[in-house]
Amino acid sequence: LTPTTMPHNLSTRTGRLLAWLDMHLVDHGVIRAVYNNFHALGGGMYRLSQPSPAQIRRYQRTHGIKTIVNLRGSNGYGSYALEAEACHELGIKLVDLRMYSRQPPTVELLDETKALFDRIEYPALMHCKSGADRAGLGSALYKHFRLGVPIAELRELSPRYGHFNFGATAVLDYFFARYLADNARQPIAFIDWVHTRYDKLALHADFVRERKERSMGDWFVDKVLRRE
What we know:
The protein has helices spanning 13-26, 29-32, 53-63, 78-90, 107-119, 134-145, 171-185, 190-196, 200-210, 214-224, and strands spanning 39-42, 45-48, 67-70, 93-96, 124-127. It is α/β, with parallel strands linked by helices. It has a 5-stranded mixed sheet with strand order 1-2-5-3-4, sandwiched between helices. The protein starts with 12 loop residues before the first helix and ends with a helix.
């Protein structure tokens, strides 16, 4: 998508105002204007929540950003329209990669993510909405695939970044925990496990069965934190 094909028409004052209001009020950008969960991952990658155009300009100025990886995928929020416009104006490559916070990743997504980290230009930003769940998954995969950090040493899905190991989003922790358990029984590289032993549907079914306390956790994640 280009800025001119977005649901929000940024070519008019009214359309721009509506996109700005949508970003701040509907998409909770007013919170991100105060704190946008920005952290360096190493190797020229940074994680954060959905950035505003002003934040994009600031991070390009201070960190020389060349690429933004948007883990929300293309969407109808004013945030996305304004982000795409800012990237176009600043010469930043915007890459849309849709991840999900309430289900384990597909093999195809894991392969696509690995390839993405090898081909994009750095320095880069990677974000979801709040910079907690999907950004945590993406950051963990980046550190493993790009920097070679062992899965057992990853701490990207953490309360430090706003991610909590309860509710439906805990499936992301469960995904990595299952690999570590399988690897402990019979050592195997993570990417080989993904291609030979990992069954997304079976893993998710096991997660649902084992997480008896999910209802209260889901209420907190969905109603209090308002996560996507």
